[in-house]
């Protein structure tokens, strides 16, 4: 029997590739995350920042050392439109940060409590039964700044957190109202069942990062022709969206006068059931291996590829 989710919610997740759970976090938990996010931005020293911009485009994805060594740190990434051609901010720091990442779930007590110390998160992981022994990684606060919060094009999360077999699962918490105007998430329901993962985001031998194709040109062309109607999911503060690693999703540019703060982290299956190799951009370190989510292995496994 499920512990937290209803069976119809589990069925809906596997049918659509995502699931919206209203009010998963309490107002107090939500506000604590939002205020802590703003405090971190306020306190970080912009003077020593390498002016790293963050973009999700294939050709322009950030690949510098500040990004590649952020897996066990809390670092700050700037909106493309917040930095001028000379590398100087064109607005106040609080309105320039695109995201904070990528080890909030380990290093910050407020985020750790909601991520690794949250019995409801553990119960959801067991109910979905995607993993036997999941580990958490890549935690981020995404700010979606007013007017400049950039568009995030169609993608799936397993491209960026690739395992063999694929096993990524995203937990995405709205910390503010998410609307059509400020960049709410949109999903292509069922695309996780019909559209293969065609590429993965990797560290390049010559340095930096890039995308490596993992399917034939024919399969890639078929995936690119995927059709369907995207569904926009407006969210209220405290709502949780569960995101299958293979489902296609996106968000539009924030054209409003309001931020769209959200907190997200991911789970993958651990070795030996899934291989997370040295090509992936985010790597565990000796001092911070990926964080175990469950105290004991989950015996309700649904994913036959991980059996």
TrEMBL record:
SUPFAM superfamilies: Clavaminate synthase-like (SSF51197). Keywords: Dioxygenase, Iron, Metal-binding, Oxidoreductase. GO terms for molecular function: dioxygenase activity; metal ion binding. Its cofactor is Fe cation. It comes from the Eukaryota. Signal peptide: none annotated. The keyword tRNA processing does not apply. Gene3D superfamilies: q2cbj1_9rhob like domain (2.60.120.620). Belongs to the PhyH family. This is Phytanoyl-dioxygenase.
